[in-house]
Amino acid sequence: MDVLHNLAFGFGHALTVENLLYCAVGCVVGTLVGLLPGLGPLATISLLLPLTYSIPATGALIMLAGIYYGAQYGDSVSAITMRIPHASSIVACIDGYQMTLKGKTGLALFTAGVSSFIGGTVAIVVLAWLAPLLGHVALLFGPADYCALMLFGFLCVSFVTTGSLLNGFSMCLVGVLLGQIGTDVETGLERFTFGLPALADGVSLVSVALGCFGIAEITKNLDAKDERTPFNGRINLIPTWPEFKRIIPSALRGSVVGSLLGIIPGGGPVIAQFAAYGIEKKFSKFRDEIGAGAIEGVAGQAAADEAAARTSFIPLMSIGIPENPVMALMMAAFILKGVQPGPNMIANHPDLFWGLVASMWIGNCFLLILNVPLVRFWLSVFKVPYNVLFPSILFFCCVGTFSVNNNLNDIMITASFGLIGYVMMRLELDPAPLMLGFILGPMLEEYFRRAMLISGGSLKTFILEPISASLLGLTALIVVAQIVLSLRKRPDGLRRGMA
Amino acid sequence: MTRVSRRTVLAAGLLLPATLRAATADSYPSRPMRLVVGFAPGGAVDLVARAVAEEMGRGLGQTMIVDNRTGASGNIASSEVVRAVPDGYTLMLGNSPQLVMNSFLFPNLAFDPARDFVPIGQAATVRFIAVVSTQSAAKDLPAFAAMTRQRPGTYGSSGNGSVQHLGTELFKAASGAVMTHVPYRGSAPMITDVLAARLDFAIDAESAVAPYVKAGTLRALATMATTRAPNLPDVPTIGEAGYGDIVVEGWQGMFAPARTPPDVLAKLGAGLKQALDNPDLRHRFDVASIVPVYRDADAFAAFIAAERERWGPIIALLGLKL
Questions:
Q1: Which chain B residues are within 8 Å of A319, Cβ to Cβ?
Q2: Strands (E), chain B
Q3: Matching CATH topology for B32-125+251-318 and B127-223?
Q4: Are A72 and A269 in contact (CB under 8 A)?
Q5: Does B198 contact A189 at a Cβ distance shorter than 8 Å?
Q6: Could A46 and B192 be called an inter-chain contact, meaning their C-beta atoms sit closer than 8 Å?
Q7: Which of A127, A213, B85, B252 is the most core-located residue (most Cβ within 10 A)?
Q8: Are B213 and B195 in contact (CB under 8 A)?
Q9: What mean pLDDT is predicted for residues A107-111?
Q10: In chain A, what residues touch B161 (CB-CB under 8 Å)?
Q11: Burial of A41 (0-12, 13-18, 19+ CB in 10 A)
């Protein structure tokens, strides 16, 4: 088969000693970035971009790509062990951390590692067989379609909420409001910035996520002298056979969702995690356990964010569209190396494309080793006493926040959200729907207003565009179905309650 | 006891800054310099900065570190450099929005780019190309403008007050084209919508559109410059397309905070000129469709003043205030 022949050609390039080394370096750096709280692949790649001037093109791109997907691999670790999320492992803070509270950290980490492996593998298959065909999917989605997609995404609120639904929706709206801070794209006017230049670009996702989850959790651990995070660095990694069997279907579903959302610009790992979590909550055999520390709640999202990270290379390499800031940086790296990503890239530089795809598979194996058997070594840091561990974690949170824009103000903003997050935790307000609102709200607004500008102010555009119309129809259907179901259930429940 | 006369003390006091200045100029640079960039790594400004920093650092015998201070359309970087000690160790690689447009767009800026920066020299120019979707019926600019007068169109930009936005407004004024502005966050999502024929028109940097033009997925109607782009020899200049005076280009140059000693500035200017002659740097510029253009401090200052004269009235006319 043609693809197999090409892959063999790619492995020929990826398996040279030099390129294996670059792949390994990328994976190790990526793993470290994923493990350290707050640090993201964007800052790391931009830091390492200048170093690649002296490296041959294939090696440099293999290394930078390794950092990106490597960082997605291990990013659930800090969320599972300490409730400190990365942008693409926010939902791992729900079930992953619940598993830690139940003493099942090892199982959660094993699940995340193996699921990432499965997600990566599925995405590589998609990349190798369908990349040239799927690139154009990125062009299919217009502003109206994105707007409908974001609206559909809001349905996930009911899935990521662990407490009452009213609480979840309110927090989601708070998130939407927080997302309004900054410069309005349409008019260029500043909103809720109080004239502070530090707020002109809004509040970064990293600041809100770190503050509301990680820093709040650490603060809570400090004020309760007796009940500290039960995790002590000792883990039992090997799952039982029934546990292992539960990982596979969730990881596969997550991989498919992640692969699809990775291809659409604006989707990517951040959105994919929420979608995968929502799907598990709806379709998994163990859906009732999700939210209280279920394997499925970790497996789906871990597979999805890994798959999305890899398929987001498709629009870049097949039509030359960078769909997120990391891909824009990768595009710059390609161009610096004299390679123009776009329709002709696969034909003009087959060694680079197939070498990169093959290296992703090799990287997948490296990462599985780094993240499953070797995770014990990374976790030995937890044997450090709390009075050293907590300040060091906070230090890394500061470094991570600072590295996004090299701006001290961002650290102050993160600290403020730490305080807000702590108050929210004490009031038992749910941070996960807040994150969802914060991510989707501004996109919904931006795409809605753009759709209106392009259509000349006609709402009909949402019905006339086929993708938008089907998504809106689906959203309406699910909402109606939920209402009908809950109306039907209530008398039952009442009766049972009376009996 | 030796008496020191009042006059001697005064003379010493007067001489002291002079000797200090001589000392700084002779030994400058004696430690690493910082080149602040207001935009994210990977973009055109960052690319120019990194190439220039590497070559200039080599020429001056000290490392020049690129420091990306992103945010607020480059104003965060500008205000940081303006407040730095004017000793030649904090410099900025700035572009036209930072030095020209922003002072009109943001009336509440805490600094005045014209007064608080001193130019060292221009480093580069980026050509802008006017493109339409290949599905468009228009084969040239006048035909396109006529089409929009029949049926109003849309154009994209990478944000309010961006070169893309203001440049297209210039074209609208000159041609009578009727188009609604659709702003985006950055160039990539905007070009995506032109590729998909959801937007009718855009003016964007050569590096952003040339690959699509060559692949036949976008149609270039004009190069917004006085000469054709060597990369796109078949695309007419804006003059050839019939709108002679609307040159739209992006430029980048090196700046120091005002009151930086003149001899330090002279040393930096010479270093920049030398760096731009380096074939390695020229190759790096070339692959990213960036044209190395050197103007010395005086010529650059005059050029920037002319740019202010040109863009200020357009921004006022559009009533743009951010």
A1: 195, 217
A2: 33-37, 64-68, 90-95, 117-133, 153-157, 179-183, 201-205, 218-223, 249-257, 291-296
A3: yes
A4: yes
A5: no
A6: no
A7: A213
A8: no
A9: 91
A10: 188
A11: buried
Cβ pair A293, A271 in contact under 8 A: no
Distance between CA atoms of residues B28 and B267, nearest Å: 8
CA distance A295 to A244: 9
3-class DSSP state of A182: strand
Q: Chain B closest CA to A379's CA: distance in Å?
A: 32
Domain B127-223 has CATH 3.90.1150.10: no
- Smallest CA–CA distance, residue A186 to chain B, in Å, is 6
pLDDT at B24: 56
Contact present, A78 and A373 (Cβ < 8 Å): no
Chain A nearest-CA distance from B152, in A, is 9
Residue B28 and residue B264 in contact, taking contact as beta carbons nearer than 8 Å:
yes
A-chain residues within 8 Å CB-CB of B320? 188
Bridge partners of B66, per DSSP, are B35
In whole angstroms, what is the distance from residue A429 CA to residue A309 CA? Answer: 30
Q: Which of A206, A340, A403 to mutate to test the interface with B (most CBs of B within 10 A)?
A: A340
Q: Report the residue of chain A nearest B153, measured CA to CA.
A: A454
Q: Do B42 and A321 touch (CB under 8 A)?
A: no
> Which amino acid is it at B31?
R
Q: Which residues contact A429 (CB under 8 A, 6 or more apart)?
A: A167, A170, A171
Distance of alpha carbon B161 from alpha carbon A419, whole angstroms: 36
DSSP-derived secondary structure for B20-47:
HHHHHHHH--SS-EEEEESS-TTSHHHH
Report the distance separating Cα A118 and Cα A368, nearest Å.
Answer: 10
B180 and A407 within 8 Å at the Cβ level: the answer is no
- Parse chain B into domains and list their residue ranges: 32-125+251-318, 127-223
Question: Best mutation site among B39, B148, B179, B182 for testing chain A: the one with the most A CBs within 10 Å?
Answer: B182
Q: What is the pLDDT of residue B4?
A: 55
More confident residue, A228 or A356: A356
Encoded amino acid at B175, one letter: S
Q: Which residue of A has its CA nearest to B36?
A: A406
CB of A336 less than 8 A from some CB of B: yes
State the ipTM, two decimals: 0.83
Write the residue in A322, A329, A343 that is nearest to B41 by C-beta: A329
CB of A403 within 8 A of CB of A39?
A: yes
Rounded to the nearest 5°, which phi and psi values hold at A279? Answer: -65, -40
Where does the pLDDT of residue B237 fall: very low under 50, low under 70, confident under 90, or very high at 90 and above? very high
The answer to whether residue A55 scores a pLDDT higher than 50 is: yes
* Amino acid at the residue A9: F
DSSP bridge partners of B118: B256
Fold of B32-125+251-318: D-Maltodextrin-Binding Protein; domain 2 (3.40.190)
Interface size, chain A vs chain B, as Cβ–Cβ contacts under 8 Å? 123
Residue B132 tokens, joined: 């339409």
pLDDT, tens digit (0-9, with 9 covering 90-100), for B112-121: 998 999 999 9
Can you give the pLDDT at residue B10?
A: 54
Q: Which token pair is B44?
A: 């055109």
Give CA–CA dist B83/B303, Å, rounded. 24
Alpha-carbon gap: A231 to the closest alpha carbon of chain B (Å): 38
Beta bridge partners of A182: A191
Q: Which residues pair with B220 in a beta bridge?
A: B131
Considering just the CA atoms, what is the radius of gyration of chain B in Å? 23
The encoded tokens of residue A190 equal 């500043």
